């Protein structure tokens, strides 16, 4: 099977690479660096280039609200809860949401992202940040280099890297501003794949769960395996540090799990209340269901 990754290989993906390395899955992991996000992971899935993709929950919600015959299905979250947050670098002079006014925010260009930024800053009585769009893979690097003031990260991954390097971050969690952000990132498949190969998705989940359990139990060895696939040189000690930080959040480490529809429903409902969606999609229809 082929899976389109949401980012270059990192500890979010360790279980997949462990399963591949150990022979538990015959899996090809397609990095977005191959084409510089010229084709998004879900687009690769929808046009049949891959059987699975990884991406944000926004992609699912938008797909179901803008497509007459939606094809995407959420299989499982990689992490059991939202660990993403907006962060400010140490030189930005930011302490509260009011300080975002006039600052530079490097966007990932996700659907509804600007609406989330508005929700964070609207209670401060100030304007929001200046939003600009660098290359997707550059947002975190730009924050570390002081080339942007704010961006959106995963705390157990980039946040752990910052902690390892002794770089203080100011963190703004969506939940602190009433945003019921769902577990992410999301592993998805398509109705075409689920219909043609119903057992293949279940087989993938079982192998991926085995890989993520191994990563949770043996973080140092798992980090060594991941190190064979990362695209930039990362010290082994640093990779193991980040691996240990993300391990407690792995959803699949507890066994093959499907995506919780109530989490998608709550987020879609919040987007609808904010006027960011024209209609409320059926969250249950977005979920892949294993054969009984």
What is the element layout, followed by pairings?
Blueprint: E1 2-4, H1 14-22, E2 28-30, H2 41-46, E3 52-55, H3 57-66, E4 72-77, E5 84-88, E6 104-106, H4 113-121, E7 130-132, H5 139-144, E8 150-154, H6 155-165, E9 170-172, E10 186-190, H7 191-196, H8 198-217, H9 219-227, H10 236-246, H11 261-273
Parallel strand pairs: 1-2, 1-3, 6-7
Antiparallel strand pairs: 3-10, 4-10, 5-8, 5-9
Task: Characterise the protein shown here.
With 292 residues, the protein is α/β, with parallel strands linked by helices. It has 2 domains: 2-81 and 182-286, Periplasmic binding protein-like II (D-Maltodextrin-Binding Protein, domain 2), CATH 3.40.190; 84-177, Periplasmic binding protein-like II (D-Maltodextrin-Binding Protein, domain 2, 3-Layer(aba) Sandwich), CATH 3.40.190.10. Helices cover 38% and strands 14% of the residues. It contains 11 helices and 10 strands. The protein has helices at 14-22, 41-46, 57-66, 113-121, 139-144, 155-165, 191-196, 198-217, 219-227, 236-246, 261-273, and strands spanning 2-4, 28-30, 52-55, 72-77, 84-88, 104-106, 130-132, 150-154, 170-172, 186-190. The strands form 3 sheets. Strands 2-1-3-10-4 form a 5-stranded mixed beta sheet, sandwiched between helices. The chain has a 3-stranded antiparallel beta sheet with strand order 8-5-9. Strands 6-7 form a two-stranded parallel ribbon. The chain is globular.
